Amino acid sequence: MQNVQGCSSKTQQTDQTYQECRNSNQFKLILNEFIHLQHHKQWNHQLRLTEILLYQYLTIMYDGNLLQEYCILHPNVLSIGIHNIQLSQYEVKQKSFLFNNKICYLIALGDDILLLFKDEELQQLWYYSMKQFSIMKFFQRKFQLEQELFQGFYKIINKKNHEQFSANIICKQQPYLEHTFGLLHECRHPSILKIKGIYEDPCNYIIVTDYYEGEPIFNALIGGLQLKESEIASVIYQILILLRYLNDHQAYHGNLGAHSVIINQDTITIDIIMIDFVYFPFKQGDDTTQYWNWVSQFQQKRNKDSEIPGIHSDLYQLGILLYMITFFPKEFSRMENKIDNQKFYFQYMKDLHIDYDLINQSIEILAELKSLNENYKHVFSLSQLHLIKKLLSQCSLTDALNHQWFINTQQKCKSHHQRQGITNLKTIIEQREFSDEEYSISQSKQSNIQNENCESIDEYPTLQYLMRNILDYEKAPCKSHHC
Q1: Rounded to two decimals, what is the model's pTM?
Q2: Record's InterPro entries (predicted)?
């Protein structure tokens, strides 16, 4: 079993020590001073990552009971018996006290549960392993704000070793933050920045992640960004791949839009990351009013306040995003120094109306090979416009991923770049999807993939190869307990 730590000799010693105390009412009274008699958080979380970080047979106390159980630490989840406890909803603290002339070492998850250790070394091992997933304090003691990259997103420096990170500041008023933080801790995807820690102050949470330089695609558009068709297709395809990953892990983004797609124009692929998730595992019949009230300031109003959000609503908002990019008005370009980007975005979304007549007129013009309105620089093809209509009419994730636009664009890039000797769309997406090692492995599989059955794309073996490689990439972590 990989990446697993356990200490059997210490376990036996710890168990024997606390076995002597379990029948002591005085010992239980001391422990009860640290926690409530009934836990307040939900402990039925569904594991997304099965990697085991630590496992131990420990003495624990919760709900007034002192008992011994196997404790298994996964990324962001502590499993105790039938309970799966999400660590991102707790502040993790270490404590100690003297009992019968012996020091007892504790770890407390909020006011709900205690883990008991006789050995300080073992306590420290578990404490720091769990603390990385918990809510922490004193951000300013550890980090220094260096530069605001865009509103709410900063470049920061670790004061001790001068390492660079990014910090995303989130208002505490945002709903469902416990589940959102849990999702981010448990995701392993190149379009989601790896969390290094989540800190809080009186008004905000600060998510510290790997460093990333970029800007929201909305900011880039009002700054005059001009995209090629292959670049737009690459951005949309990367988002779809992320949505498939989330869907496979029973999750969704929840707040997809031009504000939450961060692009890096300095990379040949226009790599993306996604921020501003709003996630909660709603069930049929749950009240979603608070959710829709929050995201409505970022998204186009759909008049479906009772709808349960999910991948289907993400796909609809992806259609809105593709419509915005495709028909972004020329007069809004190069306004970035004159306005508050976030306020302008809120107003833009409030006023946004999907003009289906404009889409249909553009389809007719392209079909007749006529020149389009110069105001719309990102209208390239019939299949691009068709995908907008499909996404807005609630197509499936599979239909979106297999859409003809990606096939056509990849073929255009292939024929053009074979003459130019430049990276094509297939390679762009492959490079985004794979690490160097995974990409090398995928190359050796190419000759075997051509014979796989895929009726919708048999005519395009290079795209078939791309799709299969992406599937291989997404399945690979399961082999090492990262599924």
Answers
A1: 0.81
A2: Prot_kinase_dom
